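yo, GntR family transcriptional regulator is done. seq:
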Amino acid sequence: MTVHRPAARGTAIGDTHPSLRERVYVELRERIIEAEYPAGMRLVEREVADELRVSRVPVREAMQRLESEGFLSVQPRRGSVVADFGPEDAEYLFDVRENLEGLAARLAARHASPPQLRDLERLLARARKAAESGRLREAVSLNADFHRQIVELSGNPLLVDLMAPLDSRLRRLFRLTSAQSDGEPMCGAHERLYEAVRDRDEDGAEALARAHVADTRASAARLLAAPPGEPEKAS
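structure:
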């Protein structure tokens, strides 16, 4: 699964590949995920086109796609605004994740090849190093990559296709809650899941994946429900 990153600031979107339409979509999506476009911000097609130095057509198409994916919403007299991501949205996401990621972990334990396992181990080492060095944003990004890799290791193309639309929402959720969370516990949970996959423990891998989703669900619910600026209370 290829993940396209936003263009460097100051670079005309039209100067890069893949297609202009896809580049505009990825750029706007990444700005929403990274909270450069925060929830409630109004996006005006003409202004966005001027900012990205492209025509309004690819911007319009990208915004329509983002609306269909729940990143933008159309409000009366305001037009397109960045959609909020609250506790209820997280609950919907976690309901789906718990079942599909549990299945993905079980299938990964069954199908992952030795080279794939080595790649996964290297990814975990990078995430651990980032967390221990205090580079939380990098650790969160790498841990999101870990979830994506487990799905790919399932060897089930239909499952990969089903999970792909959730990936960006998951990254946005991690980004919204990462500032107040600790990357190291997440690394530990992923390392235990990796060991189960490596050891071909299908039941254990599924159970660990489901437990990990349940843990992150509880933490995210507390953080998203807390008033802005209020620190999370210890449970």
